[in-house]
Amino acid sequence: MAGKLDVKKEILNVLVVAGTSLMFFALAFALYFGLFATFETFANREGSYRFVGPLRVGYGLVLCGLCAILYRTRAPEPFKAAALAAALGTSWIGFGVQLHERSGIFLIIAFASGLGVVAVLARSRRRWYHFLAPALAAAAAVAYL
Questions:
Q1: How many angstroms separate the CA atoms of 116 and 120, rounded?
Q2: How many Cβ atoms are within 10 Å of 85's Cβ, its own excluded?
Q3: 36 with 55: CB under 8 angstroms?
């Protein structure tokens, strides 16, 4: 039966997306911590920590770029959605921390990028659980910030 929704499979997909995105968030945080420690050793002149802002924002943008590349591969769809949640959430957290004194600008960036992601997902006719990724990213950003 073409077009029939297999509810058990869809619930499993949601659980895979949610669980895998949590693992990806943990991995992204661990990798960021490693990069931070490395930069702190080599780039922290006189305790200025000037490298933190570009590292934080750049790291989130690099993850989003890697996620865009992942979406062009034949990786499993729930895996792609989980990676999108982690990349988008990490990016939003980076921007949110960097712009903590300008929360209005951060909200504009987060809303515009989230809307852009939803538009691209809709245009590319992705399965519905891909749309869970921006919601998971927003939840992570709200929890962190």
A1: 6
A2: 28
A3: yes
Contact (CB, 8 A) for 52 and 36: yes
Tokens at residue 8, please? Answer: 């058990």
Count of alpha carbons within 13 Å of 120, Cβ hemisphere only? Answer: 13
Apex 112 CA angle, 107 and 113, nearest 5: 100
Distance CA 101, CA 27 (A): 28
For the stretch 45-59, pLDDT in tens is 777 777 888 888 999
Please tell me whether the overall predicted TM-score, pTM, comes out greater than 0.85 for this model.
yes
pLDDT digits (tens, 9 = 90+) for 7-49: 888 889 899 999 999 999 999 999 999 998 888 888 777 777 7
Angle at 48 between CA 44 and CA 53, to 5 degrees: 85
Cα–Cα nearest to 100, from 58, 53, 37, 54? 53
Which residue is it, tokens 């930069």?
39
